[in-house]
Amino acid sequence: MKKVLVLGAGLVSRPGVHYLLNQKNIEVTVASRTVRKAEELVKGYPNGKAIQVNVENKDDLAKVIKDCDIAISLLPWIHHMKVAELCIEHHKHMVTTSYVSPAMKELNEKVQEKNLLFLNEIGVDPGIDHMSAMKIIHEVEEEGGKVLHFYSYCGGLPAPQHNDNPFGYKFSWSPRGVVLAARNSAKYYENGKIVEIESKNLFANPEVEEIEGLGKFEVYPNRDSTPYKELYGLKDALTVKRGTYRNIGWCETMRAIVNIDLVDETPLPYIKGNSYKKVLAMVLNAKEIDNLKDKVAERLGSLCNSDILSRLEWLGLFSDEIISKADNLLDMLSDRMQEKLVFKEGEIDLLLLRHKFIVENKDKTKDLITSTMIDFGIPYGDSSMARTVSLPMAIATAMMATGEIKAIGVRIPNTPDIYEPVMSDLEKQDIKMVKKRTQL
């Protein structure tokens, strides 16, 4: 029996843990700070075990890693390096759904020397996006063609029938992570030139894209897309751009929130115990608190409109409600959004992923290829976000346990030995990309 350790029992863990528990010859230990969450995940499975672990305690963490063959880190990314170093020390494979950090990348030589695999970015974005993109890129190359323009957009949203709040958004993963992403800058190739966008302008010029059967969505650029030119082998590509889908109105509202400095995480003594109205007044240096909408409009200038003010009011930022926990503006905002932008029982989410390729064929004709995944959550069951993040991770882990994946080093799933079987198994779980090709 291969022993798999799952560190973390959060929002996205259940489908992947259950997939692993349903495999033959795999024992699964779920370790969580809150052991009750881990117990719920393994309940009814004789090959499952739940334990409590404090990941801040290196000795406790070492004990549980020593006892496994493969360690999956579903912890916040700040803990991955601690897990990685212990996996190297105790000769264990590692899996994460997170982006490869520079520090993780630097471990490649050590990981190879130990004949280990540290497989990262094996979720949805990153993860399914890599695998489905590389599948088409390799197909185009095998036909003698080349990719001239590549766009890859992804987003987790409420399903249209449950899109019923002014923000057009509900949380299916870490609220703090969503708010933190508003501080990212962006960089991408477009028509042969590098475009750089400062964080304050991240939401300034969203594209609008229509998805058949679903309607129109905003797209804003996602982090630094430029490494993907090399990572995906897109040597002929003039455009390489990754982006995030949101419902219409999200970008103008988040741009306003950024410009009011509500994504600052500097501790401030006047937040906890005060009202949202008073805190916002202090942020705006407003002497009076009864005309805050005017002060917001004054601060934002031409960026402001009545819809933005209505959304901020709906969120409660002009209210007398007391802030009970947060000591900084970013946490104040993310806690408040978590309270308001929630899925009600039985509601479902939507995971939308689309690649667009403009390719030049061997005969110099050009085609547009789209590859699209539209996946909905299960009413009263797992969310699409949970399924699309944790199932690729679990499938790859099961393949590592049986020796089907023989790669070593710090890797992402951008080669056929990984993406072909993982994508094939995902289709069995009804998670699939639909490809269309039209001549230009």
Describe the structure.
The chain has 440 residues and is α/β, with parallel strands linked by helices. It has 3 domains: 2-123 and 386-428, Rossmann fold (3-Layer(aba) Sandwich), CATH 3.40.50.720; 128-251 and 344-381 and 434-439, Dihydrodipicolinate Reductase, domain 2; 255-340, Domain 3, Saccharopine reductase. Helix content is 35%, strand content 24%. The chain is built from 16 helices and 16 strands. Strand 13 (349-360) and strand 14 (366-376) form a beta hairpin. Helix 3 crosses helix 4, helix 7 (128-142) crosses helix 16 and helix 15 (384-402) crosses helix 16. The chain is globular. The termini are far apart. The mean pLDDT is 95.
Topology (elements, then pairings):
Blueprint: E1 2-7, H1 13-21, E2 26-32, H2 35-42, E3 48-52, H3 58-66, E4 70-73, H4 80-89, E5 93-96, H5 102-105, H6 108-113, E6 117-119, H7 128-142, E7 146-158, H8 175-180, E8 186-190, E9 193-197, E10 207-211, E11 215-221, H9 227-231, E12 239-246, H10 250-259, H11 276-283, H12 292-300, H13 306-315, H14 329-340, E13 349-360, E14 366-376, H15 384-402, E15 409-411, H16 416-428, E16 434-439
Parallel strand pairs: 1-2, 1-4, 2-3, 4-5, 5-6, 6-15, 7-12
Antiparallel strand pairs: 7-13, 8-9, 10-11, 11-12, 13-14, 14-16
Helix pairs in contact: 1-15, 3-4, 7-16, 15-16
